[in-house]
């Protein structure tokens, strides 16, 4: 069967933001414009074979992303992917936590079709908003026959969920895939691919969450926090978190995941008491390379925020 529907799910963000003045790219309120209006503003591409369906899943500034929205979003994506005539899905999202949502969706859904997160660095009311072009580029990726998996599209660049990271506070091209490099580029509606689409086999979802419809109540999702190693780091933060019932800790270590000795002692104590601890790096590029004698496991190349998602899902699976 020919797949011909593109579903566009809105979750808010700057792409749906408004400011009082067209010249104001900073003093805006995110998540104001509905997804139907954003879609209505897009030019119809001549000869386009796809029908677009839009749905508002949430309307938030993505700094406030939470498990409740993730659960609903995963369920809506799952719902649409069960329809054989859906070619792909576009999700409009704030830039600030886009990489976490992308990783969450990739892990729990492992989609066989493209699920494309897109965003904007300027509000919809800007003199030259970047959102409409990003949406068109995302639709081009979602329509691409060979595409699959969760990806992000911003400023004409296609990033995998595993590699994408927001690296700039202001520039329109705010994302990077670091060492891996982008999957490809969108150029006037055509894709120029630099590498393969994400492989399903690499990042397997924990088995207990394979049934998306039965994702547990967000209030019961495991509590995993991130701590950072730095000059003068101490034990107090970790001890307080353990006393408060944290179930998992991701530490953003220095360099190759090294830890201040005082912080390390507290983390080892936490680990010994049953808290799951994972070591990532605060470096933007590279990954923690394991070495003989490591007691705290490394994050398998995941950044601290994605390692947190992975650990949360692993704990959910183990529960
Ligand atoms: C947000 O993340 O929702 C606001 C910032 C942005 O989209 O750039």
Tags for this entry?
single chain, 319 residues, alpha/beta, Rossmann fold, 8-stranded mixed β-sheet, 3-stranded parallel β-sheet, binds succinic acid
Describe the protein's topology:
Layout: E1 5-12, H1 35-40, E2 51-60, H2 67-81, E3 86-92, H3 98-109, E4 114-118, H4 131-142, E5 149-154, E6 157-160, E7 165-166, E8 175-176, E9 184-187, E10 190-193, E11 224-228, H5 236-243, E12 248-253, H6 261-272, E13 276-281, H7 304-318
Parallel strand pairs: 1-2, 1-3, 3-4, 4-5, 11-12, 12-13
Antiparallel strand pairs: 5-6, 6-9, 7-8, 9-10
Helix pairs in contact: 2-3, 3-7, 5-6
Succinic acid binds at residues 12-14, 30, 61-63, 94-96, 119, 121.
Describe the 3D structure.
With 319 residues, the chain is α/β, with parallel strands linked by helices. The chain has two domains: 4-193, L-asparaginase, N-terminal domain (Rossmann fold, 3-Layer(aba) Sandwich); 222-318, Rossmann fold, CATH 3.40.50. 25% of the residues lie in helices and 22% in strands. The chain has seven helices and 13 strands. It has helices spanning 35-40, 67-81, 98-109, 131-142, 236-243, 261-272, 304-318; strands at residues 5-12, 51-60, 86-92, 114-118, 149-154, 157-160, 165-166, 175-176, 184-187, 190-193, 224-228, 248-253, 276-281. The strands form three sheets. An eight-stranded mixed beta sheet has the order 2-1-3-4-5-6-9-10. Strands 11-12-13 form a three-stranded parallel beta sheet, sandwiched between helices. Strands 7-8 form a two-stranded antiparallel sheet. Helix 2 crosses helix 3 (98-109) and helix 3 packs parallel to helix 7 (304-318). The longest helix has 15 residues, at 67-81. The model has no long low-confidence stretch (mean pLDDT 94). Bound molecules: succinic acid.
């Amino acid at each position: 069967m020919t797949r011909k529907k593109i579903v566009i799910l809105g979750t808010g963000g700057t792409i749906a933001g408004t400011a009082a003045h067209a010249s104001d790219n900073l003093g805006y309120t995110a998540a104001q414009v509905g997804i139907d209006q954003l879609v209505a503003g897009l030019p119809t591409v001549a000869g386009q074979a796809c029908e677009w369906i839009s749905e508002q899943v949430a309307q938030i500034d993505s700094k406030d992303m939470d498990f409740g929205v993730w659960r609903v979003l995963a369920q809506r994506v799952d719902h649409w992917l069960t329809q054989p005539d859906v070619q792909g899905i576009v999700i409009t999202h704030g830039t600030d936590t886009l990489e976490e949502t992308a990783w969450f969706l990739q892990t729990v859904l492992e989609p066989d079709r493209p699920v494309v997160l897109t965003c904007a660095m300027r509000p919809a009311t800007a003199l030259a908003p970047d959102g409409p072009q990003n949406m068109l580029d995302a639709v081009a990726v979602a329509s691409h026959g060979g595409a699959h998996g969760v990806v992000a599209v911003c400023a004409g660049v296609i990033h995998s969920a595993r590699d994408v990271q927001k690296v700039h506070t202001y520039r329109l091209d705010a994302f990077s895939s670091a060492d891996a490099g982008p999957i490809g580029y969108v150029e006037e509606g055509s894709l120029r691919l630099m590498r393969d689409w994400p492989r399903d086999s690499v990042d397997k979802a924990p088995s207990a969450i394979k049934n998306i419809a039965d994702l547990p109540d967000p209030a019961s999702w495991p509590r995993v926090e991130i701590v950072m190693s730095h000059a003068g780091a101490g034990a107090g933060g970790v001890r307080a978190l353990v006393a408060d019932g944290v179930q998992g800790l991701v530490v953003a270590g220095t360099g190759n995941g090294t830890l201040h000795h005082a912080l390390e002692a507290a983390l080892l104590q936490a680990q010994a008491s049953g808290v799951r601890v994972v070591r990532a790096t605060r470096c933007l590029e590279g990954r923690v390379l394991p070495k003989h004698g490591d007691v705290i496991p490394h994050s398998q190349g995941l950044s601290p925020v994605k390692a947190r998602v992975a650990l949360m899902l692993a704990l959910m699976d183990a529960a």
